[in-house]
Amino acid sequence: MVLFRKNKGGDQGDEFAESPEAKAHRIGLTENFTIELVPMKSLEGARAHLPAGATLSVTCSPAKGIEETQRLTEEFLAEGFDPIPHFSARMVRDYDHAVELAAWCKRLGLARIFLVGGDADPPGGYFDAVKFLGDFLTTDHGLTAIGVTAYPDHHAFISDEKLHEALHAKQALLAEAGVDGWCSTQMCFDAEVIEDWIRAERAAGLTMPIHLGVSGVVDKTKLMTMGVRIGLGQSLGYLKKNRAAITKMMTSSSYDPNDLLMPLSEANLELGVEGVHMYTFNQIEATEAWRAETLSSN
Predict the structure, then answer these.
(1) What single string gives the DSSP state of each residue in 176-220?
(2) What is the CATH number of the domain that holds 267?
(3) Each residue's pLDDT tens digit, 200-219
């Protein structure tokens, strides 16, 4: 089974032929996506639009640190949500700090965290996520699953070879510790790049579930600005080259997640994409309106 675009390399505006099974899978991903939240001023206004009991991915801000992520996680937990805090390895001071974070996870009864390398410069006690994960897994954390990052669209400062090695090293560490894992992909707009990356990684032995990183319904100006800040050079370049994608974005006020979910529908079903990580940039109201409209029309 292959991606159901009409012509490989063609515009994402082409017509698609979606099988009933792939459509049901896409709708399931839409019903149950994880909402990423950023600890910044706009979060307060966004909270009123969060669906009850939603799974929330609480990011780790370089400016506010892990402590703010912990504070928000505790608040969301008390409010009945299912929060997944991000731990930035480069913000962890040392092994004792890792032990403290593990004890905090166990005290709160958390089932999952999401691990990123982070951008702290200079780093604390850990240069990268692999080393931190190895130490963290020796602690009494009480977790059942840990998510890690994946980069189909390259990284600004790390080679594809090193990204590949790190992803498989994390998978091996988690398997050895008996902890479930998943990987969430960076935000990317190019369905062909994503599918090719997943196929290559599966062939190379990546067995963990994949969560597809998708932009929520975000204002196009904000999306472009944030994309530059988080290093989406390749994907933003793709948008500039792809006639249908850029025309659609420039003639609408915001990005539509179905522009990625529909072209990848068959591949997501085939290749073990089990979730969607929705990058909302705290624009929850618009993304939830999109979800309601999508579900009501299917």
Answers:
(1) HHT-EEEEEEPP---HHHHHHHHHHHHHTT--S-EEEEEE-S-BH
(2) 3.20.20.220
(3) 999 999 999 999 999 999 87
